[in-house]
Amino acid sequence: MVDRSPPPSRQKPPLSAASIVLRLAGIGAVVVAATGIFAYVGGYLDPQRLTPQTFVNTLEHNNGEHPGYRRNHPKGVCVAGYFESNGAAAQYSSAPLFDAVRTPVVGRFALPTGNPYSPDSGAPLRSMALRFTQGNGQQWRTGMNSMPVFPVGTPEAFYGLMQATAPDPATGKPDPSKPPAFFAAHPEAGPFLAWAKSHKPSASYTTENYNSVNAFYLVSADGKRQAVRWNMVPVAQDAPGDQAPEAKDYLEQDLTQHLAKGPLRWNLVFTLANAGDPTNDASKAWSGDHKTVNAGTLVLESTTPQLSGDCRDVNYDPLVLPSGIEGSDDPLLAARSAVYAVSYHRRTREVDQLPKTAQESKQ
Fold it and tell me: What is the CATH number of domain 14-362?
């Protein structure tokens, strides 16, 4: 890849916390990891009856309304391929996909912005969503992001972040005084802000590392439960000094060019929790030494436009899990699941309002 980094004299100064929030173009959409964050059993979060519908309404208010598109991560592209297990995770999970077999996969790369026509430089994060379909018909769906942790650990705090980054009616832009005030009241966001200040977005979907962020459990055939987080670690890497260009729509084109040369690969690496590692707070990293298990390789072979590809009608609900994988006690998981459902039902009712295939090129 070509080194597009500016000369030292043109390097930008470090970003403040407020600048980072504005640069992420709706950080609330980013940290929720694919639009979903609210509602427990019964559909309500708290005595104020904050519902999944209210949360999606807030996404629409913050990001604008784009009928037929996902309410978050709306700019993306479908991919397809398979997962080839090496058998190493079979001792931890009874899910057949961890046997030494191939499991078909339909996935999606996306940008965590709220506008399907935003430039690729509009967000420094990338996301990967996957649906594994086992031979027994059970599915594993997962939505991952390039950030290692969420800014906050509860749905209530996340909703507060969305409110802090909402556009001011007078200016149409977020009030620059509100994000710093929010973060001052939420010191748990420190690890995320530290990462955001130093993170350099990958120049390609193909060289990015994607993280589960939330914790889950692998459940073995004899019922043993092991808490894990996981990463999709790319086999390809950015060249030294390579950085994302400023072009509006380079990511999908770059992906297509890479796939024309052959399949793309990521290793699925599980990090096994140690005693005392939090499973209910995605804002906290697991520190210290941990055992990791490389479970096999994700191989992506093809891509199609998101408005006509197989991923279009998939709800990448993180709690659609096969036997052998279970959700943790992280409250963001149940919230994500509920809001994903609301977003899915809204956009599928609007399918007749989607742009023509030719308009897909505007993304």
Answer: 2.40.180.10
